[in-house]
Amino acid sequence: MSLNVTSHVLVTAYAKRPKNPLGDNLPPMINKFFASAEAALADVPDGATVMIGGFGNAGMPAALIDCLIAQGAKELTVVNNNAGNADAGLAALIGAGRVRKIICSFPRQTDSWHFDKLYRAGKIALELVPQGTLAERIRAAGAGIGAFFTPTAFGTKLAEGKETRHIDGRDYVLEYPIHADYALIKADRADRWGNLAYRKTARNFGPIMASAAKCTVAQVRETVELGELDPELVVTPGIFVKRVVKLH
Amino acid sequence: MKKLDRHQIAARVARDIPEGAYVNLGIGLPTLVANHVPKDREIVLHSENGILGLGPKPVPGTEDDDLIDAGKSHATALPGASYFHHADSFGMIRGRHIDICVLGAFQVSATGDIANWHTGEPDAIPAVGGAMDLAAGAKQVFVTMEHLTKKGESKLVERCSYPLTGLGCVTRVYTDLAVIDIKADGLHLVEICAEGLGFEELQKLNGVPLKFKAAA
């Protein structure tokens, strides 16, 4: 949403937001809480690039993924560390045939049968990226970096065809950012400004994906009043988050 | 000849991890190293999914799905632990802040190249995870592996035939037969671990010439 809209448009667009307690004639207040996952994901189009948080099942926004499956968007490019485990979450999205391409570091697992089957049948494209390079490409997108040189993968198959450079005694590979249309992430607590706090190792890709997508949707365990999250402990500032849904 | 078992190899690695080291342990045999660090020696374990101060496996019944290690097994956090996101975690690795990482391998070359992520078979689904970042970024890369393949071929080789994970990064190799340093001028035998194995026989089994300087 542009900030350069007139106050009339602003009032219309923000109609569902809380009234300003300082007076009815003042603009309504920011409210990123959405009533349901359906509402938060209604506009995901076919062909979208969707980042999905989580490392295995820790931090995976399972309820948002279930909703995305029901929503029906297809031909998706998905960015995640893995390619789904067992039959739920990302594995179910892949199994439903909605994913055209996956960008990840570790697709092959003992329980990645949905991905394995489609990959062997040539029905899903794979861009394999070393895990740290994946994280940094996502971070770079969110931080406005045009490209970066990394020592990881120099001289290996995963650097074939890529530009390299010798800098101060070391060899580096040029890597580009990964931008997304949507990021679906899981956090622990959020306020209506979209400030997020996470829980333990479920944080993983959440903060960087939130920064790299045009529209970040966070699934959270608990919503709290403004001020209840200690500003010192906010991990993802609300500027990176567009929509918050409280889900279990 | 009596070769070391997995636990003995892990215990041998643990001896070389000094007080205060920041250490990343790979999946499989390297994970066992944590069990052999003396209780009075404080080291900090890093797991690339976003934790420093990784503790032992949780007591059954206390598992927390939000607290896992890089192998996606349930884990615990020690007092003093910290959590961070993936880009910071790999910044620690790539930025040369991790003192030692311990990895498994298919092959290691005489110049310290490591191959551990892909067999290269055409129908294999490739998966790399954090192996290339750890190989490129850790200050020291220790490798644990059996010295010989099932066919009796040395896994320490002149040049790796499997796809590479990293170039010139391995500093020390721990096998069921020996501990070997990789230096600019080649392989240096640190010690023979297998009981009843002599230097001549080890040299015959090893694919590459070994240098050995007897202790003065």
Itemize the secondary structure elements and their pairings.
The complex is a heterodimer of chains A (248) and B (216).
Chain A: H1 7-13, E1 33-34, H2 37-41, E2 49-52, H3 62-71, E3 76-79, H4 90-95, E4 99-104, H5 113-120, E5 125-128, H6 131-143, E6 148-150, E7 164-167, E8 170-175, E9 180-190, E10 196-197, H7 206-212, E11 213-223, E12 243-246
Parallel strand pairs in A: 1-12, 2-3, 2-9, 3-4, 4-5, 9-11, 11-12
Antiparallel strand pairs in A: 6-8, 7-8, 9-10
Helix pairs in contact in A: 6-7
Chain B: H1 6-15, E1 22-25, H2 29-32, E2 44-47, E3 51-54, E4 77-83, H3 86-94, E5 100-104, E6 107-109, E7 114-115, H4 131-137, E8 140-144, E9 156-157, E10 170-174, E11 178-183, E12 186-192, H5 199-205, E13 210-211
Parallel strand pairs in B: 1-2, 1-5, 5-8, 6-9, 8-10, 12-13
Antiparallel strand pairs in B: 2-3, 3-4, 6-7, 10-11, 11-12
Helix pairs in contact in B: 3-4
Description:
The complex is a heterodimer of chains A (248) and B (216). Chain A is α/β, with parallel strands linked by helices. Chain A is built from 7 helices and 12 strands. Chain A has helices at residues 7-13, 37-41, 62-71, 90-95, 113-120, 131-143, 206-212, and strands at residues 33-34, 49-52, 76-79, 99-104, 125-128, 148-150, 164-167, 170-175, 180-190, 196-197, 213-223, 243-246. In chain A, strands 1, 2, 3, 4, 5, 9, 10, 11 and 12 form a 9-stranded mixed beta sheet that branches. A 3-stranded antiparallel beta sheet of chain A has the order 6-8-7. In chain A, a hairpin with a 2-residue loop joins β7 (164-167) and β8 (170-175). In chain A, α6 packs across α7. Chain B is α/β, with parallel strands linked by helices and 216 residues long. Chain B has helices at 6-15, 29-32, 86-94, 131-137, 199-205; strands at residues 22-25, 44-47, 51-54, 77-83, 100-104, 107-109, 114-115, 140-144, 156-157, 170-174, 178-183, 186-192, 210-211. Chain B has a 10-stranded mixed beta sheet. In chain B, strands 7-6-9 form a 3-stranded mixed beta sheet, with no helix packed on it. In chain B, α3 (86-94) packs parallel to α4. The two termini of chain B are 26 Å apart. Chains A and B meet through α5, α6 and α7 of A and α3 and α4 of B.
